[in-house]
Hints:
The protein is mainly α. The protein has helices at 2-37, 43-47, 60-91, 96-108, 113-127, 134-159, 162-170, 175-204, 207-212, 232-241, 248-278; strands at residues 50-51, 56-57. 76% of the residues lie in helices and 1% in strands.
Amino acid sequence: MRNTKRTQKIAFFLMLLATLLIVVPVGMIVVIIVQKGLPAINWQFLSDIPRQGMRTGGIFPAIIGTIYLVLGAIVFALPIGLLAVIYLSEYSRDNFLTRIIRLAIVNLSGVPSVVYGLFGLALFVVFFKFGASILSGSLTLGIMILPIIITTSREALESVPQSFREVSLSLGASKWQTIRHIVLPNAIPGILTGTILGLGRAAGETAPILFTVAAFYLPQLPKSIFDQAMALPYHLYVISTQVPNVDEKVRYGTALVLLVLVLFMNLVAIIIRYRFRKKKKW
């Protein structure tokens, strides 16, 4: 009995230590960014264009460009990912081919983002001749977050009890009616979880947009999906490595805005997920 309690205490201590090893460094990073970046935050910084070689002015074009890219990626990836999940979970048979497809989707989640950037450059920029544009960048980011959305959404659909499907079918509903009115509404919280993860990754990546959309400096906002755009991750990289004598608070201020933008998008998605989760009956 004593050995069991001792083992339990050791296990709890190791789990607490592992949690602290994750939370403490992340918390320190956030504190440093807020402490050093907050002095740079003002209305001019958020609403003006960069000036004097991006050493002064604001980051408004980069904020708008980031929002365009993230929304474009979600608009492209979410419908395709959801249709793929419905087929894999509800219609396809469990055979060698589908197991290979599922394994490939999981493996694609670990592919480095620079590989997706080169893929987007070859396919969208060169082959389809979209050029370096918001369209190319959004499609590249959409492909990058597809495995995340598919994986989490598949788990959400499979978590819906099978008895829900059986009762719906026994009442005369078709397969698609059961999926549309029974399975999907109950799986929406899990689907939104995958969307949240995709939002965070799409907003913070630099390598894919470096090859497909990002511009070093643009004094005006993009007017169509075939225009280049500035983006916060690439802008932060540029002012940190390519532009000399940039005030430290400008760099950290840009990082803080990017962090807040990602957190805001996640918060909106979490609120929507919470409202749908409250409607669940199980």
